[in-house]
């Protein structure tokens, strides 16, 4: 009796599975299920699909021309393909999209896009109904009329525009079409390129940082990349005439960063400490952001970002818009931070202790140092960390101290900012590394240094002054070490570097939680490329250490 019941249940299960696959097969081709049930199928990706693409061109001297199509039918990608360099001309990409469940039998979904003067090669033999259709600006579109094609991995669900021969798209599921749109000479200045996404984007989860099992953790600080839209122009190139006089700023900068990522046993975390984007030469900020994020995402290295004074000087994206974009990228730990305090990008990161305890071993605070003084008459120069930020930092640090209390291992607090604190300029600081230029700190002192010391931060590091690349020791009133204040040094050829033969560089921090030790050193782009420059221990036993071998 029991065997008969088991056999009957098995037969029913098999019949049920078979029926499911029959219904799924029929629905994928002929939509036999209601939309509510169809959308619940595991193979379905709900959302919008592209059914056509168009380009509009218009002229400011022709009142009859328009760069807008019916917004009820077409969605416009809000990027002028000429990047406002077209004198009197503008052009925009439009896409026609529909919700997948609203597709009609006669609707054709876009399954491929190409750019060029000639009809693209068909490649492998496919459906005879799938033919390349010409559109404006050299765009070719291939569409499929198959029912159910909107569920395939071929369907294009989104289109974006990036610029430059070096454009990349690090987002999951996105791919840049390599050929620039054919707009004529005035549109080739920044070479607009389409980026397409197939399917819906997978969920992006923030990585969890953890001390390695050997007790070590390595941080790479990259500052002042100064990337542009397009390959960029080199400033203060050193050495002069390198590579037969051909210096493209962004490719050379990123090649330097990528080399170190590979040589340094893949750092556990990258801190980007401001001026990643050279605002004035980056009319499309998104393109520049994608370029600096690509090397880290490609190598699956978590990264965290704060802004400098140049990042949002371009016309396209505000600080808030940039941070929203950066937050969405794979492996990004960046955050906008609380909306009720000054600035964008005030947040902290926890690095968990090794093992399975789940407790924090290191806290890293990142704060927005803003840009230029809001009161130039009284305080010329650069802005400062505001009262609301300092109050947030103190409250957060004190709350985390309670959470970290009671554990036997050493816990360390670090901080990163862009513009240096006024205390960097104190002449009596003990120092290791080169000082080639004046410290351009705010002329108003909001005493954030004191807050860092009070809350037990052992090290703060900044960027901003490209050719300064030292660590300075700030002391308590009793002359004991209180806080190490470091510079990363400028890394990008799109920013200045013309002081005393300065070579672009970055700074590393090696944490050894077995000893409560932090060792720091620099690596350079040219010259002593395989050497650790100015290697020194700045924290020992979890506390700021005395300087050995001063400059």
TrEMBL record:
<keyword id="KW-1133">Transmembrane helix</keyword>
<keyword id="KW-0812">Transmembrane</keyword>
<keyword id="KW-0472">Membrane</keyword>
<dbReference type="InterPro" id="IPR029052">
    <property type="entry name" value="Metallo-depent_PP-like"/>
</dbReference>
<dbReference type="GO" id="GO:0004721">
    <property type="term" value="F:phosphoprotein phosphatase activity"/>
</dbReference>
<dbReference type="GO" id="GO:0005737">
    <property type="term" value="C:cytoplasm"/>
</dbReference>
<protein>
    <recommendedName>
        <fullName>Calcineurin-like phosphoesterase domain-containing protein</fullName>
    </recommendedName>
</protein>
<dbReference type="InterPro" id="IPR004843">
    <property type="entry name" value="Calcineurin-like_PHP"/>
</dbReference>
<feature type="transmembrane region" description="Helical">
    <location>
        <begin position="9"/>
        <end position="26"/>
    </location>
</feature>
<feature type="domain" description="Calcineurin-like phosphoesterase">
    <location>
        <begin position="217"/>
        <end position="467"/>
    </location>
</feature>
<dbReference type="Pfam" id="PF00149">
    <property type="entry name" value="Metallophos"/>
</dbReference>
């Amino acid at each position: 009796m029991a065997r008969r019941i088991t056999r009957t249940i098995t037969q029913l299960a098999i019949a049920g599975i078979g029926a499911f696959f029959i219904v799924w097969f029929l629905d994928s081709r002929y939509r036999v299920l209601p939309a509510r049930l169809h959308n619940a199928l595991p193979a379905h990706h709900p959302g919008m699909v592209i059914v056509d693409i168009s380009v509009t061109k218009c002229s400011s001297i022709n009142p009859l021309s328009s760069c807008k199509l019916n917004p009820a039918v077409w969605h416009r990608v809000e990027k002028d393909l000429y990047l406002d360099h077209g004198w009197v001309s503008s052009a925009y990409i439009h896409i026609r999209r529909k919700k997948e469940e609203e597709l009609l039998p006669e609707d054709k979904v876009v399954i491929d896009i190409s750019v060029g003067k000639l009809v693209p090669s068909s490649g492998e033999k496919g459906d005879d109904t799938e033919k390349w259709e010409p559109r404006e600006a050299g765009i070719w579109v291939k569409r499929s009329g198959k029912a159910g094609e909107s569920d395939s991995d071929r369907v294009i669900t989104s289109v974006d525009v990036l610029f430059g021969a070096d454009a990349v798209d690090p987002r999951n599921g996105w791919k840049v079409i390599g050929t620039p749109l054919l707009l004529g000479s005035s549109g080739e200045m920044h070479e607009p390129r389409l980026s397409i996404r197939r399917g819906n984007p997978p969920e992006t989860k923030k990585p969890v940082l953890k001390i390695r099992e050997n007790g070590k953790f390595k941080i790479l600080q990259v500052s002042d990349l100064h990337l542009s839209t397009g390959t960029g122009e080199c400033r203060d190139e050193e050495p002069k005439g390198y590579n037969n006089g051909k210096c493209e700023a962004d490719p050379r900068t990123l090649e330097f960063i990528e080399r170190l990522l590979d040589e340094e046993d893949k750092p556990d975390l990258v801190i980007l400490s401001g001026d990643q984007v050279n605002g004035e030469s980056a009319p499309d900020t998104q393109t520049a952001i994608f370029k600096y994020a690509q090397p880290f995402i490609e190598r699956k290295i978590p990264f965290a970002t704060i802004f400098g004074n140049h990042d949002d000087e371009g016309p396209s994206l505000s600080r808030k818009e940039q941070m929203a974009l950066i937050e969405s990228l794979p492996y990004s730990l960046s955050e906008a931070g609380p909306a009720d305090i000054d600035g964008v990008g005030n947040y902290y990161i926890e690095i968990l202790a090794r093992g399975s305890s789940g407790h924090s071993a290191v806290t890293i605070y990142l704060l927005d140092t803003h840009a230029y003084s809001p009161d130039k008459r009284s305080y010329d120069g650069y802005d400062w960390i505001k009262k609301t930020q300092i109050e947030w930092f103190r409250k957060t640090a004190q709350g985390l101290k309670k959470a970290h209390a009671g554990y036997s291992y050493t816990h360390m607090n670090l901080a990163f900012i862009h513009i240096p604190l006024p205390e960097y300029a104190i002449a009596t600081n003990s120092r290791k590394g080169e000082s080639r230029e004046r410290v351009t700190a705010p002329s108003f002192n909001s005493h954030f240094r004191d807050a860092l010391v009070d809350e037990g931060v052992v090290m703060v590091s900044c960027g901003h002054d490209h050719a300064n690349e030292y660590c300075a020791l700030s002391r308590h009133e009793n002359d004991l070490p209180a806080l190490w204040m470091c510079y990363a040094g400028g890394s990008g050829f799109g920013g200045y570097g013309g002081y005393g033969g300065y070579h672009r560089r970055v700074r590393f921090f090696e944490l050894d939680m077995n000893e409560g030790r932090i060792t720091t050193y620099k690596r350079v782009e040219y010259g002593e490329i395989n050497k650790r420059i100015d290697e020194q221990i700045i924290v020992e036993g979890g506390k700021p250490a005395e300087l050995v071998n001063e400059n």
